[in-house]
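Example 5.3 — Omega-hydroxypalmitate O-feruloyl transferase
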Amino acid sequence: MSSSVLVKEAVLITPSEPTPIQILPLSALDSQLFLRFTIEYLLVYKPYGLDKAATVNRVKSALGRALVPYYPLAGRVRARPNGSGLEVVCRAQGAAFLQAVSDLTASEFQAAPRHKTQWRKLLSLQVADVLKGAPPLVVQLTWLSDGSATLAVGFNHCLCDGIGSAEFLNLFAELATGKQKLTDLNSKPVWDRYLMDPKSYKYKSSTSHHPEFKKVPDLCGFISRFNQERFAPTSVIFDKRRVNELKKLTHSQSSICTSFEVLSAHIWKSWATALNLPPNQTLKLLFTINIRNKVKPSLPSGYYGNGFVLGCAQTSAKDLVEKGLGYATGLVKRAKERVNDEYVREVVESVSSSGTSPDSVGVLIMSQWSRLGLEKVDIGMGRPVEVGPVCCDRYCILLPVYDHKDSVKVNVSVPATAVDKYLYLLKSIGT
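Solution (predicted structure tokens):
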């Protein structure tokens, strides 16, 4: 079955009111090399009896109004002239808005895509280099053949993280439905990027216990395998009962754990076992940790910059595969517990002074979208029935499930040669 997408309209939406003309510096965390890409959300809606033209006008108007308090998202990101990081040139240049039609239907989004870029054209303005003057915010509304619609939104990751981008989307949606007015914002967005710069800390740090930045030997051609093999997207839902079954398996091996700790450990263990890696290959699970309340003082409410660091669980393939689920869960738990104010200072210092980036050998990266509030983004078509990434890639993403707040959808692409074993292990609640 084809999945063609025809773009009908592409325009720049500028802030609906005058905004400051200025150059704003981005923080050391914002400027990290590994964040120079686009966060791409895909929301699927099943509206009834909708006036499409009125909906398009309402969405465009709401976008223009949302860009008033979030005016840097209408600017352009570039490298600072002195090479010390990134900055945003704010001159109300605008965000991109596209309207399109497709022969896809809403039901096709319930399962994983047939290949990882099947839905690429639902956000058809793809930004290859976020520093080359592209709009940092791209919104595409696509009408599907069954009367449903998708809203795809791309955010330059240098400008905001998952929490910040979701806060913007929820304001945009509330403006579109009239639940919120610009004159009476519930919470105002906060720039204050200097808070995540090393000079705010005046602190000499060490990265000696930051395994996320340490290179490990590639004993199995891991990088070439992940660059050359065909990848198969997967999508599996875990409900509360299945997560609780996983928790029961860990009780004899580790202390009480959270749903995220045990589920991410189970995914990591299943992934590593399916890949059949050499026993002595070092493996890492990298996952995002919100630091807004871990730094002292806490970051202010409404801070929408990158307010996270990477937690890192590390072990050998042999131990991860052969030891019980409680072992892997304990590694994730301890990686979370290591992140405190001092840990964050060390990361800020390291990425600003040496441009340090996480190694990619033996790495699975996990991002938790299930707690961002994306499932509440109602732009006048009801809440989305599906939430996911535009492309299903090697990042493992935990997603919300429509009308099941205790369920999580696990979305990741794995090498095609390992996909059957991975799915079997993931769906088996073993030890």
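Remark. The chain is about 25% helix and 25% strand.
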